[in-house]
Amino acid sequence: MHDDDQPGAVKGGQEWFPERWAAGAPWPGSGIFIKKIGFSMNLNQITVAQKLWALVLGLLVSMLVVNGGILVYLHGVNEKINTDVMTAQSGATLAREWRHLTQMSVERSIVAAMSPDETLAAQQRALMSKGIERINVLQKQVGDLQLGTQSKQALDAVAAERRETLKANSAAQEARKANDFATTFDIVEKQLRPAAERYNSAQEAFVQQLERQSELGREEGVAHRRQAYWIGALASAVIVALGLFMGVAIMRSITRPLDQAVALADGIAAGDLTGSVQSNRGDELGHLLGALNGMAQRLRGVVGEVRSGVESVSTASNQIASGNQDLSSRTEQTAANLEETAASMEELTATVTQSADTARQANQLAATAAQAAEQGGAVVAQAYDVAPGNEVLRVGDKVRLEAIAAGCSQSGHSGHLYVDNFTTALPKGVWITASGPVSAPKNDGTEITYTYSYTNNASTPVTNVEVTPAMPQDSTGVSTSFVSLVDAKNYCTAPVGGVGSTGPAKCSIPSLAPGETLTFKMTVKVPLGTPGDQINNGNYTIGGDGVATLMGAMVQTNLLDAASSSDMTTNPSGLPPKGTVGVPYPPTASFSCTNQGAATANNAICGVTGLPPGVTVGQCKVNGVDWAQGDAVAAGETVVCPVSGTPTAPGTSNVQVTTGADNDVTPANNQVAASPVVIASPAGPASIPTLSEWGLILMSGLMGIMGWGM
Fold first, then answer.
1. Phi and psi of 493, rounded to 5°?
2. How far apart are CA 600 and CA 602, in angstroms?
3. CATH classification of 568-680, choosing from 3.10.180.10, 2.60.40.10, 3.40.50.2300, 3.40.50.10490?
4. What is the reported pTM?
5. Counting Cβ atoms within 10 Å, is residue 387 exposed (0-12), middle (13-18) or buried (19+)?
6. All residues at 6 or more sequence positions from 171 whose CB lies less than 8 Å from its CB, including other chains
7. In whole angstroms, what is the distance from residue 165 CA to residue 198 CA?
8. What's the N-to-C CA distance of the chain in angstroms?
9. What does the sequence similarity comment in the record state about its family (predicted)?
């Protein structure tokens, strides 16, 4: 199609708009129907500034919507991955503890079944029962987790093998109770051990299945992220294509009317005043086309008026010529006719002058038209025990100290003894101390374990050292009874009467080197019946060659009934089992300690050890109120301690959560080992740009294309 055939173009001095094309009929000489599009017509009614702002804001809003949608989606994916992985990891941790307790319980069961020692068997059965109770709790916790189908099947297999193992254990214990050791041995070897091995294998398979579930969760998360990246890239590409399409449409809506305006102005500058342009646009360009069209029409009118003036001059000239001929032929005309002829010449001269001025004005208008176009020791002050045995020195008691000078008898001399000062320094020689629980249950048969520590504070060895720990007594003078004694050096022996005896134990050490310190533990049972309110352990001594016998300091244990006892327990489940160097701990990381007893826990503690480097404990709280070590914890209340920070080094940390109180009578549950915390090294740089980087790249490209087009 020739340029002159464009609608609204100037052709042959006339404006040409094919009527059939305007009506939507086929273009002459072709089979193509061209229709007016409502979108184009509406676009022509919008100002140029509004078009450009609409394009820029539309692209920005579209990119924000896409980026926001992808980020929300990725957040949801990450939340699901974290939930699935943490569930699998928590299940694996519980399953490992379950497996460990299972192995210990099976071994204890075998020992209890095979041992002829009834005391040992009873002890092992008690430990086994506690282990089974803990296993029941772990099994319930694992069962409450949101596990996959295969993990649940593996858990069902573990439960089935556990039932078989418990069944075999029950049979072995029944045979043991009947003192049928041959049958017991047969059941242990043919039923219990094989069942335990199958049980352990099922647990191992369950742990492996949970680890696979965790890994599958991570892989699924990576796939979802990759899918999100592709969706974001595709959406960005669609926005780019739409932006290009809109940019081209806006540029065409601007350049086409400008081309028409330039063509019309060029025609006027060349002297062609017949051209015109028709436009129904409502923007600045439509206003420009209308102004140029009106100017052209006005120029045509001026030129028409000039033509009319010239025609008048021509007519007058013809009339003058006719009058001259008439004058020459009529020489006899009078002077009045000559005056009329002179007046006619003056009028003719004025008309010619006006025509010349009109022509100059038209030329000036044509030239003007052509130019118009942004972020205590024990005191130790161990005073030498002035209240011998298991007696207690009360406030207000009088103490008599005797000092005998060398070479003098105890009679015949008197004087005053002044105490110059008191000291906490250990005397030169052998020294012994004991430690035990502050509180214990006031029940028949409660067992209390004391730790004895003795040392040689002299500069030379002490030989033939004798340590004699007598049985502690309650506050009414009734003696406790012997239960057990543990000495790594085997220097100590039980009382003559053995278990149940109230006589003293004895330790014989051949030689104790300077600075050498040894320890042993002795467990006693409180008196049966109704014991007093305290157990006093103050009748234990140490002596040796060349040194005086020394009595140790008093250790008191309060006996509390259930109403006066607290029971502090720990919960480390809020501590994350994994972390990464340089990545902060999650804000929900914490551990807690709960008082499950009936009485307020006095002088309570709740702490943790073994945290990874860079991770610390924050302000502990009880019901939202700040709590400090040594404060009380009411019955039923829980101390929650947040853990925060950023790991600074990779490795594995063995975390221990510890609690306790002065009136906590069940210290066995005061310390729990959390799952080993594994801190990984920081990940390397990403292989592909992040979603935000894609957005910046695409937006920069779009702005560059728009700038080039405009």
1. -130, 155
2. 6
3. 2.60.40.10
4. 0.39
5. middle
6. 187, 191, 192
7. 9
8. 27
9. Belongs to the methyl-accepting chemotaxis (MCP) protein family.
Q: Residues 379-389: what's their mean pLDDT? A: 43
Average pLDDT across the chain, whole number: 78
Question: Is residue 469 packed enough to be buried (19+ CB in 10 Å), middle (13-18) or exposed (0-12)?
Answer: buried
Give the range with max mean pLDDT: 10-19, 336-345, 412-421, 523-532: 523-532
Residues 6 or more apart in contact with residue 239 via CB below 8 angstroms: 59, 62, 63, 66, 698, 702
CA atoms of 541 and 551, how far apart (whole Å): 4
Mind listing the pLDDT tens digit for each residue in 251-266?
A: 887 888 888 888 888 8
Q: What pLDDT does residue 408 have? A: 46
Give the pLDDT score at 327: 55
What single string gives the DSSP state of each residue in 491-523? -EE--TT-TT--S--EEEEEEE-TT-EEEEEEE
Q: For 256-304, how does the pLDDT look when each residue is reduced to its tens digit (9 = 90+)?
A: 888 888 888 888 888 887 877 777 777 787 778 788 878 877 887 888 7
Quote the CA–CA distance of 541 and 507 in Å, as a whole number. 10
CA gap 445, 71 in Å, rounded: 64
**pLDDT at 375 > cutoff 70:** no
pLDDT at 688 over 90: no
Taking the C-alpha atoms of residue 538 and residue 151, their distance in angstroms, rounded to an integer, is 57
What distance in Å separates the CA atoms of residue 147 and residue 456, rounded to the nearest whole number? Answer: 59
CATH fold for the domain made of 423-560: Immunoglobulin-like (2.60.40)
Contact in structure between 316 and 351 (CB atoms under 8 Å) = yes
Q: Considering only 42-56, 218-232, 534-548, 661-675, which range has the smallest mean pLDDT?
A: 42-56
The model's pLDDT over 59-90, given as tens digits with 9 standing for 90+, comes to 889 888 988 888 888 888 888 788 877 887 88
Other CB atoms within 10 Å distance of the CB of residue 513: 11
- The dihedral sign for the CA sequence 380, 381, 386, 387: negative
Q: What does each C-alpha distance from 103 to 97, 132, 199, 426, 669 come to in angstroms?
A: 10, 11, 9, 47, 20
pLDDT exceeds 60 at position 1: no
Q: Identity (one letter) of the amino acid at 636?
A: G
Element (H, E) at 113: helix 48-114
CA distance 534 to 477: 10
Is the separation of the CB atoms in 184 and 171 below 8 Å?
A: no
Residue 36 pLDDT more than 70? no
Please state the rounded mean pLDDT for residues 308-334.
Answer: 68
| Rg of the chain (C-alpha set) | 55
Tokens 């926005």 -> residue: 239
DSSP annotation of 33: B
Rounded-to-integer distance, Cα 550 and Cα 385, Å: 8
d(CA 265, CA 259): 10
Q: In the structure, what pLDDT confidence band is assigned to residue 468 with cuts at 50, 70 and 90?
A: very high
What does 293-338 look like in DSSP terms, one character per residue? HHHHHHHHHHHHHHHHHHHHHHHHHHHHHHHHHHHHH-TT--HHHH
| Torsional sign, CA 327, 329, 335, 336 | negative
Class of domain 53-240: mainly alpha
Sheet holding 534-537, edge to edge: 439-441, 555-560, 534-537, 473-474
